[in-house]
Design goal:
Length: about 190
């Protein structure tokens, strides 16, 4: 009787095993929905506000809505700043300057409305040695030329934006750059890592 019992149990176990092998995995996979995995998107952190506006803004701030061309010019200024090996603060000073000078529009000669021969994002003048018209209307070149001037300003990082910009630009309106500091910082925060 013991051997009959043992054979019966082995037969039942064999059937259970076979049923599990054949039915179990099929049934388990039939019920489970396929799992979709997407790679984790790592969002680069925005630059620290303390780096963008280390001294706080001065005076009332202005702001304009930007079109696609102005956004592209903003990105070109940031790219040129990175290429020059300069930091986020240099990009803020550059963008605020271009906001004041051209509203981030790459301006050609404006005829009677032109300030002498000023052109491009930074309203640089060929007659003042900034480069040819073709060069100063190229966003990368004009930004690099501005940054070269900024690097020559001792302590530019530790002075108010408007003073740093004015030292490079030598504008008739030296305090006007300050009004664009917050928008410039916001643009750098938004596009520095894009």
């Amino acid at each position: 009787m013991n051997s009959i019992f043992r054979k019966s149990m082995l037969g039942v176990a064999g059937l259970a095993f076979a049923g599990g092998v054949f039915a179990g995995p099929v049934a388990a996979h039939a019920d489970a929905a396929p799992v979709k995995t997407t790679p984790a998107v790592v969002q680069a952190e925005k630059p620290d506000a303390g780096k963008l506006i280390p001294h706080g803004v001065q005076g009332a701030q202005s702001r304009i809505d930007l079109n696609d061309e102005q956004v592209a010019n903003t990105k070109a200024i940031i790219a040129a700043t990175k290429k020059a090996g300069m930091d986020e603060r240099a990009a803020v000073v550059s963008i605020a300057t271009a906001l004041q000078e051209s509203k981030l529009e790459n301006l050609g000669h404006l005829g009677d409305r032109n300030d002498h021969d000023s052109q491009g994002l930074f309203q640089q003048r060929p007659s003042s040695g900034w480069g040819t018209v073709e060069q100063i209307t190229d966003p990368e070149y004009s930004t690099t030329a501005f940054l070269k001037g900024l690097k020559q300003v001792d302590g530019w990082q530790d002075m108010p934006l408007t003073r740093a910009a004015q030292t490079v630009q030598v504008s008739a309106y030296p305090d006007h750059y300050a009004q664009w500091e917050q928008q410039a910082a916001d643009l750098v925060a938004k596009y520095w890592n894009s």
